[in-house]
Every structure is written in C-alpha cells, then in structure tokens.
Write a structure and sequence with these properties.
This protein has twelve helices and ten strands. By secondary structure, the protein is an alpha/beta fold. Strands 1, 2, 3, 4, 5, 6, 7, 8, 9 and 10 form a ten-stranded mixed beta sheet that branches.
Amino acid sequence: MIRKLTRTLALALALPLAFAAVAVHAQSYPAKPIRMIVPFPPGGGTDILARLVAQKLTEANHWTVVPDNRGGAGGTIGIAEAARAAPTGYDIVMGQKDNMVVAPWLYKSLSYNPVKDLTAVAHVAYTPVVIVTQANSKFKTLDDVVKAARAAPDTVTYGSPGNGTTIHLAGEIFNSAAKIKMRHVPYKGSNAAMMDVLAGNVDLMVSSVPSALAQIKAGKLRPLAVTSAKRSTSLPETPTVAELGYKGFDVSTWYGVFVPAGTPKDIVATLNTEINKLLATPEMKAAIIAQGAEPESMTPDHFGAMLKTDYEKWKGIVQASGATIE
C-alpha cells in the first residue's frame, strides 16, 4: 500500500513538472538566430515573401531571423536541405506549391517526401495565375480564345515559365475544362515568355500575377481571366475563370513556412502564432498585396491538411500532363 501511495505521489508531482518544462521550452524559444531557408535565388516572389516575413518577425519580436538562399532545381534543393535539418525550430523554410506538391510527381527522384519529412507551420499567401495576351491581340475575352481553339485545335499558343510548373499546368487544366487544345510553348523563366507574348510571337501567356502586373498596369498586356477561386485584389476588374462558366476552376500558387518533421509542437505553435499576428497587420497585408499576392493565415492543422490534399490532387494532374524532369 505504501509503495502504491509513493508511486501515485511521484506521478502527481511529475505531471506539473512536465507541463512546466514544456512552458519553459516555449517561453525560451528562440534562444538563438533562426535560419530561414529560401529555396530560390534572390529577387523572386518566394525570396521577397521570405525576407518580408523574416524582417517583420525580427522587428516585431526582437528575434534574429536570417534568410539563407539555397536555390536550384526548381526549389527542391532548399526544401531537401530543410527536410534534413535538425528538428529544433532553428531551421525553417519558405516552401511553395511548385516544390512541395508538384515537384515530387515531376522529378523522377527526390530526397524528400513533403508530407512525411516536413511539418506545416503557417500559410503566408497565395498568388493567382492570370491568362494574358498582348494589348493589341485579337483576343478580347477568354471566350474568344476558346472559340478560336475549337475552330482550329493546336494553333492557339500559350507560353509559360517552363514545363511542369503550376503555371504551365494551369493551362493544361484549362484545356481540359474547356475541351480545347492550345499548344504549350515552354520558356526558361517568366521574362523570356513575357518578351514573346509582348512581341506577338505567342498568342497568350499564363503567368503569376506578380510577374505580369507591371506590364498589365502599363497597358501592354490585356488580362483575360485569373485562375483562382476569387478575383485578385491587384486585378479587381479581371474575372475568374470560374465566373466565365468553368465552375469550380481554381488554380493558384501558395507560399508557407515549414519545419523539419519532429519539431516540437510548442515551437510550431509559437511560430504560427507570431506569423499570423504579422499577417493580421495592415502594413503586412499591404506589403504582400503590393507584390500581387494575397495574404491568408491558417492554423498548422489547416495548412497541413491542405498540403496533403494538394499533394494527392497534383499527382494526377502532373501524370496527365506527361511532364517529367530527370
């Protein structure tokens, strides 16, 4: 009886101590600089958003968050480095749809599985995809494009930043939804595709809003539709593909923060809380919208569920497209 009472007393004392240890752990984080892995070179959309989050976390909380660009292979090198890092909360990464849910089905071999090797922390923003044409083009509306493509299949051309990107696949999904066949012309990046659509060498370009926004505002490109479920804040007069008769059409690129799998839940919760606080501020919202993106916060569970859903969804899309990268 005495031994049983002793064990019970020891357990009763241990539980508060365990909870206290967790609380101290959360309160002491971060105790040193945090590395924010950016899986693309400086200057692109992912880099801009990652640096914005790092800067604002540093300013608001007196943390030290240091961006570290690890570009290459469509963002997969940086993601792989994050997946291999120690799960301590001191290595975080700004991932996005292309390298988290498209690349695993596009590349023949990757060293990471995004669902198993990484934990979703905080969704930051999403970027609508826009279908544009030269300002003087004969295509005044998306319906003009569909009619021309049905009348002469494989003659209407559209450029993209490259094979297998979310942007390229948005065009293929629209082909399927509209029951048409446009010819895809892949480029090495957005700038090359932009030059050719401006010159009239390709009929259309499927682009992220940030890449096309300056030329649209300058009156050199005509936006026909955005592919997201909602209209873009940056292009409020441009209808969605869904509004134009393709119910349920929704293709966009999202960006969010991830940590290696096994990172303590209290650290994940701390990061999520602080990033969501930033996203709620007018200053941060304005800064993200200025880049042509749309701020949107989520809980870790919500973001993690979205990752899993998209991961399975894009398997079929990539396989149907036939796109692969060695």
